[in-house]
Every structure is written in structure tokens, then in C-alpha cells.
Amino acid sequence: MSIWQQHLREAIRSPTELCAMLGLSESSLGLDVKPDFPLRVPRPFVARMTPGDAQDPLLAQVLSVRAEREAVTGFVADPLDEHAGVLPGLLHKYRSRVLLIFRGGCAINCRYCFRRHYPYQAETLRREDLGQVVTYLRAHPEVNEVIFSGGDPLMADDQALADAMQTLAALPQIQRLRIHTRLPVVIPDRITSDLIATIADLSVPVITVLHINHAQEVDAALADAVGALRSVCRSVLNQAVVLAGVNDDGQTQIALSEALYAAGVDPYYLNVLDPVAGAAHFFVEADRIRTIYQEMLEALPGFLVPKLVKELPGAGHKVPWMETLRR
Ligand SMILES: *Cc1c(COP(=O)(O)O)cnc(C)c1O
Ligand code: SF4
């Protein structure tokens, strides 16, 4: 078993244990000790939390709290209406690219994620489904990019990834492959030399999109993993989500962009929260989002300002958030 798989196995799953590790009293946190969506956080991520800080922005992303149980109008199980794929493990919402649900699970359970209500386990791509995906792509020559997603595609082992990436890259219509993952952020050891070698040998460019919400998530080990990815990927990008209590002010977002840049990651998307049941306590008012983004525009060079977007059910692309206000 490799180091990263060991970290997966040893991930913290007990809210009580997590509080004890950080020297925090459960009563002050509104802790939910038996959440429906389990707590799950690998130790290398816990190591970046500040002991004794009940407001730690990394802790807030993973800690199960009783507020999640409150029903809030407008926050629903499937805000994106995404349950129906075209094939098991395949979503085709955007014309030129398909999303492959390569692995349903994740290394970390983020409390704001819409995956908390998904029957993703059933929708995970099985080895024997890859042939069907190839058949689908041949029938849809407008698709030129395959996005490995999930869950987290890097939950798969390196051999399974290599097989799938090589198979898909061999299709003449495929111009590039993309990997959407949070795993290297929470377990930097996931970027193995085998994975790097696989990417290096592919006949098409690969883009990696990470998911980092706060500068404090960026440490030296992550920067090393990014360095390895950059040596073989066309680009290493980031998407974040605006989250109350985590990154809902201008200075925090500016610090995030600068930390990403220093680590070799380019900001790509800043997503507005999907209204998923259980995540209402992360909601940020529109006026506040506007102020945050304005501060970013004033403080950062254009290449460090991510696109502020929202997912709208039925839209054929991610929608600029400013535009959604006028609808
Ligand atoms: C975000 C997303 C993509 C990729 O969109 P880009 O704008 O190309 O980054 C593809 N499919 C689905 C279902 C998505 O949610
Ligand atoms: S899909 Fe991404 S945001 Fe959702 S739980 Fe997994 S790592 Fe977190």
C-alpha cells in the first residue's frame, strides 16, 4: 500500500476525535457527532488547521455541525438536477466536453458539497463501462475533451487511471484530458511518480483543476505536488467556492490568489454556493459577494482574478454570476 492510500485509510472519521486533536471543546462548536453525511478528513489536512481555533477556515469546511440539519427554503437535495447521466458514470451537459464520474468517493467530505445527497456510488464508472464511453464519444464527434471527475478521480489507483487516460487520449477527436481533483490538496503524496510518468507519456495535453478555498490550505508539500504536476501538465488551475466563515471577505480571497500563484496554481473559477440542503450556513449574501469581488479586481492583476460563476440547472455552461442577478 502506498503512502497516500495509508493516509486515506487513516483519515479522521470521528467528530469527537477531530475536536480532541485540535484541543477544542465540543460544546462550543455545535457539533453533530452522528451526521448522515459522515465526517472524513485526512491527517495531512488536519495538520494545517490551527489548534485551539474554533473558527479555523479549514475546520469549518469539514466539521459536521447541527446547523446542517435545519431545513432552509430553497436549499434542496439536487440543486443542479444532475442525477441523470447519459450512461452510467458519464454526464454530457456541455457541448464539447463530457464529465466522467471516475470514482464516486472522495478523500475528504466537504460539508458544502452537493455530493452529500448523491447516489454517486451507483454512478461510478466501472471498468467494463469504459467501452461504452468510447462508443458514446465516437457517436458524438463534437466532444473534444474528457473531464475526469467524481467524487474524486484520483481515488482510483494509478494503473486504472493510466488505462482510462490512454484509451481516451487515443481517440482522434480528443484534444485534451482534464482532471478535477481535491486529493493532492488534502494528501499531497497522491501525486506519485507513476502518475506523473503516465501524464508525461500521453499524446494529448492534460489540465489539472484543483479545489482550494483558503490560503492556509497551501503548504510546502502541496507546492511540491503542484511542481510535479506543472512539469507534465499544460496548466494547473484552481476552483474555489465562496463560503461564509471560510473565505467570505476580500482580503482572504486576495491572499488565496497570491498563495495559489506562489505555489504555481492559476485561479480559474470562484463558484457561488450551490443551494444544497445542509449547507445553508455557508450562504453569502449577494451584496457581500459583490464587495468581495470588487476588492479582488482592485487588488489583483487580471490573471489572479478567477471567473465568478454560478451553476444554473439547464444552462449549457457555467454562468457569470453578475449575469444571474439580472435573470
Ligand atoms: C463545470 C463542469 C464542466 C466543465 O466546465 P468548464 O467551464 O469547461 O470548466 C463540465 N461538465 C459539468 C457537468 C460541469 O459541472
Ligand atoms: S466532490 Fe470535491 S467538494 Fe465535494 S466532497 Fe469531494 S472533494 Fe469535497
**CATH fold-type name of the largest domain:** TIM Barrel
The topology string of helices and strands comes to: HHHHEEHHEHEHHEHEHEHEEH
Poorly predicted ranges (pLDDT <50, ≥5 residues)?
Answer: none
Shape: globular
How many alpha or pi helices? 13
Structural class: alpha/beta
The CATH superfamily label of the largest domain reads Aldolase class I
Topology:
Elements: H1 3-9, H2 15-21, H3 43-46, H4 59-62, E1 90-94, E2 97-103, H5 120-123, H6 130-139, E3 145-150, H7 158-169, E4 176-180, H8 183-186, H9 193-201, E5 206-211, H10 220-230, E6 235-241, H11 250-263, E7 266-271, H12 286-299, E8 307-310, E9 319-320, H13 321-326
Parallel strand pairs: 2-3, 3-4, 4-5, 5-6, 6-7, 7-8
Antiparallel strand pairs: 1-2, 8-9
Helix pairs in contact: 7-9, 11-12
Bound molecules: pyridoxal-5'-phosphate and iron/sulfur cluster.
How does this structure look, described?
This protein has 327 residues and is an alpha/beta fold. It has 2 domains: 3-69, no CATH class; 90-324, Alpha-Beta Barrel (TIM Barrel), CATH 3.20.20.70. It is 32% helix and 15% strand. It contains 13 helices and 9 strands. A 9-stranded mixed β-sheet has the order 1-2-3-4-5-6-7-8-9. Helix 10 links the parallel strand 5 and strand 6 (235-241). Helix 7 (158-169) runs parallel beside helix 9 and helix 11 (250-263) crosses helix 12 (286-299). It is globular, with a radius of gyration of 19 Å. The N and C termini lie far apart (51 Å). 37% of the residues are buried. It binds pyridoxal-5'-phosphate and iron/sulfur cluster (SF4). Residues 91, 93-94, 97, 99, 147, 318 line the site of pyridoxal-5'-phosphate. Iron/sulfur cluster (SF4) binds at residues 106, 108-110, 113, 115, 150-152, 182, 211.
